[in-house]
Amino acid sequence: MVVETTVAAIASPPGMGAVGMIRVSGPEAFSRVSDCLPKGQDAGQFAERYAKLTRIVDAAGETVDEVLITCFHGPRSYTGEDTVEIACHGGVLVMRRVLQGLLDVGIEPAGAGEFSQRAFMNGKMDLTQAEAVMDLISAQTDLALRAAHEQLQGTLGDESEAIREEILGIAAHVEAYIDFPEEDIDTDTGAALLGRLGAVADSISRLLQTAEQGRILREGVRTVIFGAPNAGKSSLLNKLLGYERAIVSDIEGTTRDTVEEVVNLQGIPVRLIDTAGMRESEDVVEAQGVQRTRDQVETADLILEVVDGTQPLVHRLGDDELRGRHHLLVINKSDLREHADWAEQQGVRISCMAGEGLDELSNVIAAELSMGTGEWGGHAVAINARHQACLKRAQAALASAQATLQEGMGAEFVSIELRDAMEAIGEIAGRIDTEELLGEIFSSFCIGK
């Protein structure tokens, strides 16, 4: 790919820090950066991959900042282009002035994800690896980090490419019959092709089974803490987080809106959502909070139904309300005398006040979701929603090809379905791409990456 523009962006997080990073990439990276250096200095002559202490100066030759510059000659760089990384002091004003100086000499501002998109377009990584960059940045747990690393190493791209090549081999076999129309696909050959298609379909199914794991690793398990007022919902949230996030009070109706935080539970991000206590209320604001509670329950992956074990059993969530979602009964205040109504109820008994039973609750949550590190440790791939859509399209095309073969229809019809399957699989790693698809993917990246 030939890119005519040279772009720059701040590559470190916003705010103040000891060091900030500005990245420049493109065919004129060295010459344009040299225009911002003291007279006589040429970035293109700096030792490659060695940090060079120098200064960024303005048009009048006045020092903007003392910096370290590292040069990478294409294609031996992240983007595959000539690249300069400028490490300056991390003040907001300093970084803005350095960046503005670069823009003033003709460098263009980079768009969201433009550096990673250039790396993809220059063949430095496939599309799954480019997506893994953002997964790596946003990973909140060790398992999420490991899954992102595996994808960044090309695991998913390799697997999808192996599937595509297998379909290509089958398609070549089928199209040989198209080239020789006097030959029909005989029964034995058809059975062999069906067997190969079945094996490919199984590989796709195995990848599809990781879609839910991928969603959980990236977004967290939506866990709604549900119950009556004063059952201990906010106290449970605070205990699981390890700090006071929600206001705890004996006054009913204290929590009127949802409170959402993420906690690392045995390597899996669990998105805890504290909700308003379920009761009828004439208070307009509290009633809105109760309605939000119902809305959150509708979209929950897991419901922690918290009850006060010292009070009589009044109401439990029914099957209609749960609708097959994961659900755990949490009986709070186990340090006090338990009411007889709860004697036969199966649940996890905890005391938020005494800090008892919380480790057991964590283990039970992990078991309920089959999320223990042991169960997840063998999964090197966790596909995202885009991968899932591509795989489902390929799966449908293969199923149609199998049906066509079984019905004894012409090889031409089988070939069309196989080509559709190859195209869908190819989109995973970007073997077949469209400008619209790339724009959608890279628009979610942060500026500077």
Key words describing this protein structure:
single chain, about 450 residues, alpha/beta, Gyrase A, domain 2, Four Helix Bundle (Hemerythrin (Met), subunit A), Rossmann fold, 3 domains, six-stranded mixed sheet, 16 helices, 12 strands, about 45% helix
Describe this structure in words.
With 449 residues, the chain is an alpha/beta fold. It folds into 3 domains: 7-126, Probable tRNA modification gtpase trme, domain 1 (Gyrase A, domain 2), CATH 3.30.1360; 142-210 and 383-430, Up-down Bundle (Four Helix Bundle (Hemerythrin (Met), subunit A)), CATH 1.20.120.430; 219-376, Rossmann fold. 44% of the residues lie in helices and 17% in strands. Strands 3-4-5-2-1-6 form a 6-stranded mixed sheet. The relative contact order is 0.12. The model is unreliable at 247-256 (pLDDT under 50).
Give the gist of this structure:
The protein contains 16 helices and twelve strands.
Q: Count the helices. How many?
A: 16
Uncertain segments are 247-256
| CATH homologous superfamily (4th level) name of the largest domain | P-loop containing nucleotide triphosphate hydrolases
Tally of extended strands? Answer: 12
Strand order of the largest sheet: 3-4-5-2-1-6
Sheet-strand content, in percent, reads: 15-25%
Mean pLDDT: 83
Give the oligomeric state: single chain
**Shape-level CATH architecture of the largest domain:** 3-Layer(aba) Sandwich
C-alpha-based Rg, rounded: 29 Å
Helix-strand topology string: EEHEEEHEHHHHHHEHEEHEHEEHHHHH
> Which structural class is indicated by helix and strand composition?
alpha/beta
Q: How many domains make up the 3D coordinates?
A: 3
CATH topology description of the largest domain: Rossmann fold
What would the principal axes of the Cα set say about the shape?
flat
